[in-house]
Structure formats: C-alpha cells, structure tokens
Design brief:
The complex is a heterodimer of chains A (225) and B (401).
Chain A: E1 2-13, E2 16-28, E3 33-37, H1 44-51, E4 59-64, E5 67-68, H2 74-84, E6 85-88, H3 100-111, H4 115-128, H5 144-156, E7 162-166, H6 174-189, E8 193-197, H7 201-204, E9 209-214, E10 217-222
Parallel strand pairs in A: 3-8, 3-9, 6-7, 7-8
Antiparallel strand pairs in A: 1-2, 1-4, 4-5, 9-10
Helix pairs in contact in A: 3-4, 3-5, 4-5, 5-6
Chain B: H1 3-15, H2 18-55, E1 60-65, H3 86-95, E2 99-114, E3 117-126, H4 130-133, E4 138-141, E5 155-158, H5 160-167, E6 176-179, E7 182-190, E8 195-196, E9 199-200, E10 204-208, H6 209-216, E11 223-228, H7 234-248, E12 255-259, H8 260-303, H9 305-313, H10 318-354, H11 364-391, H12 394-398
Parallel strand pairs in B: 3-10, 5-7
Antiparallel strand pairs in B: 1-11, 1-12, 2-3, 2-6, 2-11, 4-7, 5-10, 6-7, 8-9
Helix pairs in contact in B: 1-10, 2-8, 2-10, 2-11, 3-7, 8-10, 8-11, 10-11
Classes of the chains: A alpha/beta (225), B alpha+beta (401).
Amino acid sequence: MIELRGLSRHFQVGDQVVRALQDINLAIPDGDYLALMGPSGSGKSTLLHILGCLDRPTTGRYVLDGREVGSLPEDELAEVRSRKIGFVFQFFHLIPRLTAAENVELPMVLAGIPPAERRERVAKALRAVGLTDRAAHRPDQLSGGQRQRVAIARATVMGPSILLADEPTGNLDRASGHEIIELIERMNREGLTLVVVTHDPEIGGRARRILKLVDGRISSDGKAA
Amino acid sequence: MNALDLLRFAWGALKGHRLRTALTLLGMAIGVGAVILLTALGEGARGYVTNEFMALGSNLLIVLPGKTETTGNAPILGGTTRPLTLEDCEAITRRVPRVRRLAPLSVGSARVGYRERRRQVTVLGSTPELLPVRHLQIGIGRFLPDVELDRGAPVAVIGRTVQSELFGSENPLGQPIRIGDWRFRVVGVMAAKGQSLGLNMDDVVIVPVSSALRLFNQPSLFRILIEVGAHSEIDAARREVMTVLKERHDGEEDVTVLTQDSVLGAFNRILGALTLALAGIAAISLSVAGIGIMNVMLVSVSERTPEVGLLKALGAPPRQILRVFLVEAVLLSAAGGLLGLLTGYVGSVILSQTFPALPAHPPTWAVISALAVSLAAGALFGVLPARRAARLDPVLALAGR
C-alpha cells in the first residue's frame, strides 16, 4: 500500500526553484496497475523516482506499507529499495560484462543472499521470463526484448511488492514491446503492484488506472474511457 | 555482499578494461620492483663490503698515528703527533701477550725499474707477518725474510701486475730491480689477489719495513696491523695497546686504535643509509603508481556512473558502493605489487648471477614495506574515487550524469 500526502518535490536550478511535483495526494493499493502519463517535464519520472525511494520529497509524506519512508536516511532507503521495489528502465541498464544470469543475480549478491539460494532463484526468475536458454549470454548477445526480459527478471528476483517501469517499451519495437507489457501484466495479476510511466496512450490505456500529471500536479485520476 | 562476491565483482570490472588495468598494474609493479631491486643492490653492496672485511679476519686491530675523535671514519690527522715507530711495535709485541701477530706497515709510491722498463708502483714496507695478517698468498719464490725489525734487507716481493709489466715472460726470481735509487733483488711473486680494501694488491712491491722507511725517508709507520688470538680479546687488546703507546708517547693519546668492528660498523652505517636512500627514491615511483591508480579509478567511476546508479537502484547502500570501488583499487595495487615482487626478485637473482661478488638479496623489511605501501597506496588513492561513486545521486547517476 502506497500513500502520498501533500507531497512536493522542488529542485534548485541556479537561482530558480523548479516545482517538479506539487501537492500530490495519492493512494495505490496493493496489486494495483497504474499508468503514469503526461507530457515531458510533467513530473512523472520524478514521481516514479520518489515512489522507488531513489529520490525524496521536499515536503509531504510518503507512507509505504504503513511506514514513513520519505524522510529515511540513505542506508534505510537502500534497504527499502532492495526488499520492496523492482525497477525496469527504458534503456535496460544491464551490466554489459555480466551474463544474463549474473545480471539477474546482482540484487541478491548485493543483499548478501547465499550462493546456493541465489542459483535457484535466478533459474526460477529466468524461467518466468522465458530466458532459461539464454542464461549464459551477455547483454550484447541478446535482442532488445530479451534484454528487457532479463531486466524484469532482475527486478523481480528479490520478490518485491512494487514493480516500477519507466518507459519499459520505449526502446523496443511494437512486437517485443507488446510481449514485455504482457509479461509485467501477468506478474501484476499474480499480485505485484505495477506502476508504468509511459506516454504511449495504447500502453497507458491497458492499465486499470491512469494518473495524468500536468506541470507537477495530478490533472486526472481514473480509468480512461 | 560477501567478500568473495565483492572480489569477483571488482575483478570482473577490471577485466573489462584489460589494457587500462595492465598499464596501471605495470606502474605499480615498476614501483614495487624498483624498491626491491634497489634495496637488494644496496644490501648487496653492504654484504660485499662486510665479506671483504670478514676475509681479513674479525680479530684485527689497526693502529694509526694521530688522534681522531671519530670511531671509524677516515681519520683526519690533526695537531702535533709523535711518529709511530718500529720501537713501538717491539714494545707492543713484548708487553701485550694477547697480540698473536703484528705487522708494521709503511706505504709510499716509487718508480720501480728493471733494465729499461719502469713503472710507478705503490711500495709497501712490512714484515713476514703481513702475509698471515692480511691473508695474502705467495705465488712463486718466498716472502720477506725474517730479520730484525730495524734491519733492512735489499729484497723485494712483487705483485702479479708488476711482474708481467717489468719482466714479461722472464723469470723474475733473483733479478735485480731499482726502487727509487735503491737496488733490490726479487725473491718472490705474490699470488693474484686483485682489489683489497681500495688497494690493488697485484700492483705493489713489498720490501722489509726498515728499508721502506729509509727509502721514503719517513719517520713514522703508516699503520700497525695487529692480530689478536680471539675475537673476544679484541677490546682488552685494544686498551692494552693504547696503554703501551700512551706510556711511550709521554702520556699522550696521540694514536688511534681501530677495531675491525668499528670500521665495519662505519661502513655498515654508510651503506645502510645508501640503501635507505635508494629505497626512498624507489618509493617515489610507488607513490606515482598510487596516483596512477587514483586516476584510473576516477576514470572508471565517471565511466560507470550509470552502473553506480543501477547498483543504488538495486538496493546497494553508499558504503557498499564505496567498498566495491575500494576493493577494485586495492586489487589493482595488490596485483601490481605481487607482479613487482616477482620482477624485483627475478631482477635481483639476475643481478647476483651477473655479479657473484655482490650478494644482492632484497631485505625482508623492504619487501614487506613495499607490498604494504602498495596496498596502502591502493586503499588511500582509491578512497577519493570510491567516495565520489558512493555519493552519486542515484537518479542523476542512472541518467549517466
């Protein structure tokens, strides 16, 4: 359960204050499927970063599963990211020198999970995204769609409750983009809270709920027509 | 993140840039190798000098005219000094029973000629005792005759170089030579010896001591070499010799008695300082290598900014990022250090094979401190880049900024 109350995020750029987010009030129940839409500069990425604990609100509260996380120190935020949040990025962000399996393993390595358990969970995560036969391939030996599937396996291997996807299909052709959306929608049906940032109305339209941001404020919230 | 994973991750990152890693390793290897090789050289020089002294025996006293305040450095003659005479020698032999052998030494330079050949040569005046005291060997013929100290004899023993220069293939034994204006008869030729404590023993002529004193018209001996029975007696013998000479010189301590140990100690200190100086020079290259590591790590951090952002997004706290990059830096310097250790050792083995007289073994303290410094340099110079990585803002880092 995500709750944002009166949340704002301001950036100091030179002597100007940029109000990227203003007075955001939002509740996202567990298992929800939310599309964050809006023109560029509307603050949707900033909101996603705050939801993912990569950034902190300037004012207001962010309560995640009953705990105020907006003001946590860096180390505890890292812990929240490790346990509760999975990220999928537009440009995949795979580490090129590591194989698909090693990329998927990385969050567990960072969290200090013992190797035997890691192997098991890597195999399971790769199976879930249909890439068992590509485990030993490096990112440059994989297609764009396959890379994004490795990234999804990596994002979910720690068993997070929220999956945050920032333009997950933005760098893919239509067919593989479609596959990726279906994959994360399947994970959503299994209980994962899904937040997708997109400016593609077709993808946004698939979500259970669409949140439109304009100039850092919520302009509409609800199921699109 | 456990230690093994940390190492694997850092190693993987280093392997990703083979050339850059290799060059940085090389820098560190040269630093460590230089420390090891140069200290080995310094220690080798020290070992060489020590061996030279030990070859003379460790129970040697050297008496020289003039009082010096120093304990072993080259004595500076000062003030009015009484000469060191043959009578002094006799008094020491008579009154100090600890003295096993005594060889007076007089030194001068003279033109030595045989028929029409001439050569400027160092002439030593001494007694038959010189042979055992200085561990010299006779080649052919005999050494000086055992005559009264104050009785000269017109006989000479020549070195190998003098023999070949003056006589060529002729047999020198029994032949007359001129030393200055005096005539001597060659009775023996020394075995080849080479350099010994700064004097080429092959290019000398040795004559009885009183002949030499008269030849050069010298009032005083150059040195008295005294060998005592055992090393443990050396200090007692030194005091006794001093007492005898003081009495004979009207109660004034106007001679210096050096022990082999003090001379050796002085050389040891000088050469030890030399080794340290060499180590210091080599340490400069170590610190340069450390800066090289810092440079490479800074490049690595800015190049891998998105990776740092990713690690943070995946839940790595700042201290873990710090550790990842620090381990990378230390791994670089440790591998470079080991490589340097190897090259340093190989170099010193080659050195001691090429110059067998030079026992060039790197001292343990140098090896350990070179490795420790290289590790410390890696850690120290790795901190700044690692901290930079750890402090990156995750959102900006993910965007590659």
